[in-house]
Amino acid sequence: MTDERELLKKRFTELAKRAYNSGIFTFTSFLGLSEQAVFSEVKRSLGSIPYTAFGGAHGCERVVIRFGSEEDAGFEMPFPISVIKAEPASQKYADKLTHRDFLGAILNLGIEREMLGDIVIIDNVGYIFALDSIADYIAENLIRVKHTDIRREIVYSLPEGELFKTERRTVQVSGERLDAIVARVFSLSRDDAQSLFKKRLVFASGKQIESASYTPKADEVVSVRGHGRFIYRGFASNTRKGKMNIEIDVYV
Fold first, then answer.
1. Are 114 and 29 in contact (CB under 8 A)?
2. Which of 44, 50, 42, 53 is nearest to 24 (CA)?
């Protein structure tokens, strides 16, 4: 695992330096939370080399890093991300399709996970974020998900409204330690919540959080592998018994 992390750090550094030295844009593939955590360890060493992270839409968890700037390159270059709309040929006879169903069907086509971003499902229709280089292949070959025949097309606009829906909640905690917040949000015991940090499953703003006593910042996105993610909105009020009410937006 250490070797993989070092190779990934080297790759990030090479892409950044190539963009800076050549005055061009360079891109990573899609990065999951673990890869983003590795990048957070590297970005301080990049100095003034500009970069931007984007997953294809606001709120995407998986992102592509673009190194370079319009000022250095002399032009703007969009992220090489396409969106494939995949919907049942007949909703009436379709299975109830999940993220896992779509992801499994795509990976069964022989596509590497790093080529894929988020998969959003709205009204049993999947919106698949993928690198441009593989988007046509997915659109041509993703003919079935689970037992459901699928129509596919590359789209250039997303459905109106929130792509990633959140639900505002107020939770009561004894303090703003992240383990206490995670325990309340996901209905876990304090011990179970703390074990998630030891297993390196907790991330905040793309950084891996190993300290259970970490205090999240206002509007920071917290992701817990296997459980979900939420936006920490901050302190709301004190209770009569000396506890705190905090507000969060949970992705649903």
1. yes
2. 50
Is it the case that residue 12 has pLDDT exceeding 90?
yes
Task: Reply yes or no on whether the pLDDT at 131 is more than 70.
Answer: yes
The burial of 167, by beta-carbon neighbours within 10 Å (0-12 exposed, 13-18 middle, 19 or more buried), is given as exposed
φ and ψ at residue 206, rounded to 5 degrees: 80, 0
Residues 243, 124: Cα–Cα separation, whole Å: 41
Return the percentage of the chain with pLDDT > 90, whole number: 87
Please indicate, yes or no, whether the overall pTM of this predicted structure exceeds 0.85. yes
Instruction: For residue 25, count other CB atoms closer than 10 A to its CB.
Output: 22
Residue 203 contacts by C-beta under 8 Å, 6 or more apart in sequence? 33, 36, 37, 209, 222, 223, 224, 225
pLDDT tens string 149-181: 999 999 999 888 778 989 999 999 999 999 999
Residues 6 or more apart whose Cβ sits within 8 Å of residue 192: 183
- Side-chain half-sphere CA neighbours of 106 within 13 A: 29
Contact status, residue 236 vs residue 245, Cβ threshold 8 Å = yes
pLDDT per position as a tens digit, 45-69: 888 899 999 999 999 999 999 999 8
CA 198 to chain centre: 21
State the greatest distance between any 2 C-alpha atoms of the chain, in Å, as a whole number: 61
> Do the beta carbons of residue 248 and residue 242 sit within 8 Å?
no
User: Cα separations (Å) of 198 from 143, 191, 240?
Assistant: 41, 11, 33
Contact 152, 139 (CB under 8 A): yes
Residue-level pLDDT at 184: 95
96 touches 24 (CB < 8 A):
no
